[in-house]
Structures
1.
Amino acid sequence: MAADEKVFLITGASSGIGAATARHAARAGFRLVLAARSVDRLRALADELGGEQRALAVRCDVTDFAEQEALVASALERFGRLDVAFANAGFGAARGFLQDTPEHWRAMVLTNVLGAAYTVRATLPALKQSTGHMLLTGSVAGRRAIPGSLYSSTKWAITGMAESLRQDVDGTGVRVTVIEPGMVDTPFFEKPGEGRLQADDIARAVMFAIEQPAHVDVNEILIRPTAQSG
């Protein structure tokens, strides 16, 4: 690995925004550390992006801090550094506080909020060493209240977490960005829809943030499809 090559870690990398971002980052010359619970899809993506020399696939449940620590350890063992971390793992729930099950709610809150915080905690020492970049997947739903949406509450938490982290790392050179998509045509939704963003649209926004000069910290990118009114 060349000394000037950088390393990009992505959780929730097996599909959707995570997989699209991995492809864009690979084309930009990054080595990849791909994490998700879906090992077969992860390995297929890693093979597509150049195999073990270019992309490392690691099974990781983001709600387990030990697994996140092991993920970062694997990244450092393989590539020797970590420059960008993208806390992207997450999923949603039906609207309505009498919908879905308490068990589904618990899993969603743990994944979307605690999982993101664990990614921050596990990657931050390495990012401080590299003067790197931390990105988190928020949502338009984290900028406005949505009736009956506990998912929206988790994304409000991400909006606050990103700003709290930005203030915490002030003076270290680490940059922090929250990406806030509107409706995206990904496996997150059960039915594909017209007028939605594509995962590639979000991946390009991620790359825009990380490709800025070191003195530029793009803190928030709110991105909606033209057809979305709310």
2.
Amino acid sequence: MIFEICADSYEAVLLAKKYAIKRVELCSALSVGGLTPSIGLIQKCAQIREVEVHVMIRHKEGGFVYSDLDIQIMEKDIKAAKEAGANGVVIGCLSNDNKTERTQNKRLLSLAKKLGLEVTFHRAFDFCTDSKATLEEIIDLGFDRLLTSGQAKTAEDGIPIIKNLVDQANGRIQIMAGAGVNERNALKISDVGVDALHFTIHNKNEINSGMGFANGLNESKLNDIIEQF
């Protein structure tokens, strides 16, 4: 089983290296679903060659519907992520009616591929109205993998749809399950045949300075999940 950690710090990537984790999804602002991290953080984490760094390309919170100006910004972020040493990017654009915005996704994907980056379609998928048709479009566009909770609040709740997606994909794209993956349900979720599991290893600091919460690392969670496989 391949593991991917959702990381927002250099320390989290160091922990991924310690446990021989294949890759991290590097983000900032995990409390709003993840935003594009700083260039300095990407550069620093990319120095840890043993772990692949896949960068979230989402510069603003509040959803996945973007203007042309937003796409221009995201293109610049993709180029900057590549220059900073990233191995891949994580993207996803939707229309106002919760369908994939094909033109925007193709534009960002084509740029990333031209730069030699792997590309993951993130959990914007879980807001789409037709999972079967959306998966076919993502495959047709050429994405490397899909991160999904099975269109449920957690991947455990979404197991039936995740299983259908695995069967439908039939090896044409990697299916990675994420959202609420922990030591109690990781094996159950993996049993549907997903290619990878995606999870956070954070403990939220309950002390709020008025500028947000600081995240600590939960090494025991990581260890407990890995020991099951």
3.
Amino acid sequence: MSRLAALLELMRPRQWVKNGFVLIGLVFGHAWRERALVEAALAATGAFCLASSAVYAFNDARDAAQDRGHPDKRGRPVARGAVSAGDAGILSVVLGVAALALALLASPAAAAIIAAYLGISYTYSLGLKRVPVLDVVVIAAGFMLRLLAGTLGVGIAPSAWLFACGFLLTLFLGFAKRRAEIARLAEDAGRHRAVLERYSLAFLDRATIACALGMSLAYAAYSLSSETARLHGTAGLAWTLPWVVLGTGRYLYRLHRRGGGGDPTEELLRDPLLAVAVAGWLATVLWLIG
């Protein structure tokens, strides 16, 4: 049982909340009442859960030796010896194949998107993660593929506004993660993640602010536009903007004043006000659109 528990831990199910990005298309595409689309979107979401776990297992197998010297990562299953690197590699392959098979239940397009996600994620692990800025862009691209799977992958027309806001949001979170890592690891940052040697706090501060501002302005333009009002049958989406500002500001506060920002999932679990901002935004959107 302990071995099965270690394998499940290796899959990091707590991180599956990120795959909720796949379901956003159902809401903004007004498709939540169409059973076939909902089932396809759920299949695509499940496929991304399996695919992201495949990537986690692959990363942990490759980075086990380095992780053993990391203050947080040394407790991961491969690093602490609960799962061998070989078994983690096998699990990665099994999960990747299962993700593709499940995505096919949604559509061939969804399977192609999952294949693209696995391809760029494995390439990231093999080298792209060492290239400054590109490392964050690749992570953001993974989230854009999630949005694409929940729209084009299930037969919903994708929205340019949705992708613009989503891309800027994930860039913001990615640069914030790099800043949090440097602040957390100090002079040892480069030893634990090579790309951190090529970043500076000043650059990352500017990058996070620029992305946060760009995302907020893009969302404001979207929520206030007459085209959006016609699409959703309401001009009230502007009332969701305060939640976006609150959530963004709170995340920046935790990044600079509370040593947070390293993991969005953990931040949601640890900070009640941030969780309220996200829940408030979602509830307001559902109320207005639904």
